[in-house]
Amino acid sequence: MGFYTSTGEPMTATESFDVLFHTGGSRPRNPFRFSGAGRIVIEPDFVTLDGTARRSFQAGRPASERIRMVDIVNVWSDGERVQFDQQRVDGDRSIGFTVSTPEQALRIIGSLPQRRTEAFATAQADAETFQRQMQDRGSTPVMWSLLVANVAIFVLMMQENVPDNPLAHSQQLIRWGSNAGRYTLGGEWWRLVTSMFLHGGMLHIAFNMIVLFQVGGLVERLFGSLRFALLYLIAGVCGSLASVLWNPFVNSVGASGAIFGIIGGLLAFVRNPDNGVPATIAKNLRGSITGFLLFNVAAGLIYPYTDNAAHFGGLAGGYIAGLLLARSLEQR
After folding, report:
1. Could you tell me which residues come within 8 angstroms of residue 185 by beta carbon, excluding any fewer than 6 positions away?
2. What angle do CA 216, 217, 222 make, to 5 degrees?
3. Alpha helices in 6-60 (DSSP H)
4. What is the pTM of this model?
5. Phi/psi class of residue 57: alpha, beta or left (left: φ > 0; alpha: ψ in -120 to 50)?
6. Are 260 and 238 in contact (CB under 8 A)?
7. 93 strand-pairing partners
8. Could you give the residue numbers annotated as active site?
């Protein structure tokens, strides 16, 4: 995450830029429901945003919003993203868009007021501190090794000539080491581990690997590679154990128990007041974790084939392991 202030000569005349507005996803949003191609016009005293306003079940319509320069604060850019706050009597609101190049973004923010609120300045300083902390922790070999192992095993399984029916697929998973209740409880406890590296289909492995990639690197840097490996293993085993004890007739596979566990470990880390993570970053992480858990718990209750026992077992195991394994960033 990079933050920039003015680096060029401020504009003295009206100038306009082509921009893209967004209403969802990870892109910067705007409160006007502008979506798609648009334009920002910067004058000495005003900024005008021209775009297409989208409404539910209605065609988009051209719209324009004019903002006073004196109301603009907290301008920042991260690559091709640009965002600023508009101060209003009824509460501040954030306005964002993307441009074609980082140079264009710098040109835009160099033309806008450089005033910052105290809260924004603190958040910016915390973000820069946290970025340096993460950069100091180098690469994430365990996370990448887990990704490669899961994908490689899935590809090898797909090379087998297995009849296209549920029974044959289930038997294949058992041969490869799934957490099948009658085998696991019958003494083949190694299945608690091997099942963590098996997946039932393309969507299953894709979702798990995306989440592992998004979260695993951060957690490995926070805990360190060795402790991250232990966290992942402990959480995965706890998830597998919870699954087979909750339903002895289960034939369960997947890395989701371990992934919920690293989320639990991250939650344990950021809840520790002595973690060494800047305060605003810790607060944001807690909010993101809560949102992730609420969404996935709700999805698990709706989708009938979700192994919720593995998720909750992994989450609990990861949280407890996180409490034991976490160390303050300042101690590293």
Report:
1. 244, 248
2. 95
3. none
4. 0.76
5. left
6. no
7. 86
8. 256, 311
